[in-house]
Amino acid sequence: MLLSNNRTCVVACALAALAGLLVPHFARAQADNYEAEPIRYSKSTPDNIVSQLQRRLDTDKSQLKFEDHFGYLRSVLRELGVSPATQTLVFSKTSLQRQKIAPDAPRSLYFNDDVYVGMCQAGDVLEISAVDPQLGAVFYTLDQVESGRPQFVRQTDNCTTCHASSHTHGVPGHTIRSVFADAEGYPILAAGTYRIDQTSPLEKRWGGWYVTGTHGKQTHLGNVAYRGAATPKPIDDKNGLNRTTLCEEFDAGGFLTPHSDIAALMVLEHQTEAQNLLTHASFGTRQAVYYEAELNRELGEPATKRWASTDSRIKSVCEPLVRYLLMSEEALLEDPLVGTSSFAAEFSKQGPHDSRGRSLRELDLKRRLFKYPLSYLIYSKPFDALPAEAHAYIYRRLWNVLHSADADGREFRHLSPADRRAIVEIVCDTKAGLPDYWKRPAAGDSAP
């Protein structure tokens, strides 16, 4: 009996010691250790829309055309399937080529679900960020010099210094900032900045950005420069709101379109944070499963043994994603938003559409961003590439939230019964790979 008690004590001490080592290790990995196993960010070979284009270029299956003013921009957008209507313009000096950016020479940004492309006027390179299903944001530059064999050059430390921090949940990702920019485009840092996503009120958005479109009585920080320090004052705030043209600010002929569409900005801000949370869920789940396997090996446990701590870690990285995908805490609109370009129509047409013609990409822009408040990014490659453990948690939570009108507290009370019913119908009709319990018609059922 004494021997048994001693053995139990030894095992308990070993478990405590391992847990004490493992939990801080996991926490560090969650925060910034994406270079370690199982992620190995810099050493892993990317497989994304940009690396796939580079392979086509290397094998002469694609070609890029160089133009005098735009360089490779127009050709790159065509090859990557990015519409010029997604153009947004930022005039604050907050980018890699900040010396090229100013209010009269803003940086243009274009995007789709898979990639972001930035161009500075007279810039040395195009700045590209691909959304890699396994690695999160992967950054590239493309020289704006004509070449017989254009090369997208991967950037790591140069970009992750800013793009892998607490603002991106400790993973390689994207951050939309609203700053008080002065007349030359320099951010007035003493005045503070705002990190923007779908929860940000409009009055804090778009400092250092141009905005075209109407928004009623709502205000924002875009379209104007500021002066002062701790309490900056707009140089001309009366011209900043409800702008439908930017012809007074710069020569629009230097850009693919004359717009920095308010609807495109809204979608951009939703999408970047959702993708950060997808990467966070992917990395965190993969790390949790990896460390569990290490623990089982060290303790001589079966490889299939599941620890409660692993489930807890998976929940901690997947629950924020569920809430964001369901537009929890979204900043609601007081007046309708109307853009100036074809962005809203193009975006909504992409689908997929259910048998009744409904789509998660349908924009509302009257009281909220989307007509049906579940993000279209459930169709994205990063979502499909999530580990099985993450999919199991996310699908179960989505099902239970959408079938339990009163059980989930304030986080989901913005979802009306009609919202919940429509989302379930659209997803069941359009999303492949759903668990079998999603096909059950009876509302109120809980997932197993």
Can you walk me through this structure?
34% of the residues lie in helices and 10% in strands. It is an alpha+beta fold. The strands form 3 sheets. The chain has a 7-stranded antiparallel beta sheet, sandwiched between helices. A two-stranded antiparallel ribbon has the order 7-8. The two termini are 42 Å apart.
Secondary-structure map:
Blueprint: H1 2-31, H2 49-58, H3 73-80, E1 88-90, E2 107-111, E3 115-119, E4 125-132, E5 136-143, E6 152-155, H4 157-163, E7 176-179, E8 193-196, E9 209-210, E10 226-227, E11 233-234, H5 262-299, H6 308-325, H7 343-349, H8 381-384, H9 388-402, H10 417-430
Antiparallel strand pairs: 1-2, 1-9, 2-3, 3-4, 4-5, 5-6, 7-8, 10-11
Helix pairs in contact: 1-5, 5-6, 6-9
How helical, in percent, are the residues? Answer: 25-40%
Could you say which overall geometry the principal axes of the C-alpha atoms support?
Answer: globular
Order of helices and strands: HHHEEEEEEHEEEEEHHHHHH
> Which structural class matches the secondary elements?
alpha+beta
Q: Strand order, biggest sheet?
A: 6-5-4-3-2-1-9
Nearest-angstrom radius of gyration? Answer: 24 Å
